[in-house]
Amino acid sequence: MFNCPKCGTVCKAGDAFCEDCGANLTEPTVVLAEECRCGSTRFRADGICARCGRMRPALAGEFIVGPGLAAVTDVGVVHQHNDDAFAIAGPQNGGTGSVVVVCDGVSNSQTPDVAAQVAVSAARDAILTALSKNVSAEEAVRLGINRAHEAVCSVPYDHTHPLDPPAATIAIAVVLEAPGGRRHVTSAWLGDSRVYWLRRSGGLLLTRDHSWRNMVVDQGEMTDQEARKSKMAHAIVKCLGLSDHPGDPTTCPEPSIETVDLPANGWLMVCTDGLWNYAEAPTALAEAADEALLNDDALKVCRKLVEFAKGKGGHDNITIGLAKL
Questions:
Q1: Which of 18, 99, 170, 239 has minimal Cβ neighbours within 10 Å of its Cβ?
Q2: Rounded distance, CA 161 to CA 141, Å?
Q3: What's 44-74 look like in SS3?
Q4: Which one-letter DSSP state was computed for residue 180?
Q5: What is the pLDDT of residues 213-254, one digit of tens each?
Q6: Cα–Cα distance between 276 and 284 in angstroms, integer?
Q7: Rounded to whole angstroms, how far apart are CA atoms 120 and 112?
Q8: Residue 115 lies in a domain
Q9: Distance of CA 300 to the CA centre of its chain
């Protein structure tokens, strides 16, 4: 059972339309803040301002595919603008076929909110197209990240401005069925947005940040204990929009891609650091969600985790995408 995203009427899993208001329950629903910072109140269906072409900076958005697949983004407590974005697709009940993409615009770059928004849309659409052609999940997510990078590099910016060109982190999770009925989750990422598998008893972190801390540890320059004390510890070393190929700014950085065979049911979560900075370990995130992981639908779990992060200070934008497994 779940509530209609338009009128709140209780609906059954699998219903195509709400019996009360007639809303199409198979299409994502978005709830947007009322006004863009340019003053316009007119938005396209994808949340882009009809006047200035930017995503609403103080966006409080929720996309609901169904009880097993939803995402939420929230500006948090401290910031006035939301530079996060997400795009999701898949079955109402989550599981096989779910695609979740989350981006976090880099704060020291120009128009980070636009970078994040164009990236998630480009990645999701490229992945869905590739999967429809029976491309492997690994190649599909690689293509998605490449298309996202191209989209970010295409965002106009001021070449004389002291801030970097538009840039964003990205994390992607795709669920596909493996031989024998098992579920494979393929994750791909650049930067420090993360993919987790959560259960009430804990779970797993499925990504490893492209951070300065991990880089110097991998290179043998510091121990992890030494690196985590540095002010540079959380600085990202890879992201969309900034190439790691000298002299070729359009070449996409090499993403990390991992496929795992998950051993049991739970929730697949893709999130920005606005959440995991307050609960980094899977066990801590599971404790924050508490009984919601067992009893609630995807949207309610997202909301509970957002409120947890805001209750801890909400010092950054918070974005969470969840698919039930």
A1: 18
A2: 32
A3: CCCCEECCCCCECCCCCEEEEEECCEEEEEE
A4: G
A5: 888 888 888 888 888 888 887 789 999 998 766 566 678 999
A6: 9
A7: 12
A8: yes
A9: 17
Give the pTM.
0.81
Q: Check: CB of residue 320 under 8 Å from CB of residue 275.
A: yes
The DSSP secondary structure of 286-303, one letter per residue, reads HHHHTTHHHHS-HHHHHH
Confirm whether 139 is domain-assigned: yes
| Dist. CA 274–CA 235, nearest whole Å | 14
Is residue 119 included in any domain, yes or no? Answer: yes
Asked if the structure places residue 137 within a domain, the reply is: yes
Domain with 178 in it? 31-324
- Identify the helix (H) or strand (E) that includes residue 131: helix 112-132
Q: 10 Å Cβ neighbour count for 138?
A: 15
Decide: 224 and 178 in contact? Cβ < 8 Å: no
Closest CA to 271 of 129, 128, 72: 72
Element (H, E) at 144: helix 137-153
Residue 57 has pLDDT above 50, yes or no: no
Q: Cβ(43)–Cβ(49) under 8 Å?
A: yes
Q: In the block, which residue shows the tokens 């909301």? A: 303
3-state secondary structure of 85: strand
d(CA 219, CA 241): 24
Say which residue the tokens 């329950």 belong to: 25
The structural domain count of the chain equals 1
DSSP 179: G
Contacts of 142 (CB under 8 A, 6+ apart): 188, 255, 257
Residue type, 242: L
DSSP-assigned beta bridge partners for residue 260: 185
- CATH number for the domain spanning 257: value is 3.60.40.10
Q: Which amino acid is at 180?
A: G
Largest CA distance in the chain: 63
Cβ proximity of 82 and 97 under 8 Å: no
Nearest of 129, 148, 133, 124 to residue 28 by alpha carbon: 124
Mean pLDDT, the chain, integer: 86
323: Cβ contacts below 8 Å, ≥ 6 apart: 68, 69, 88, 90, 94, 95, 98, 100, 173, 175, 267, 268, 298
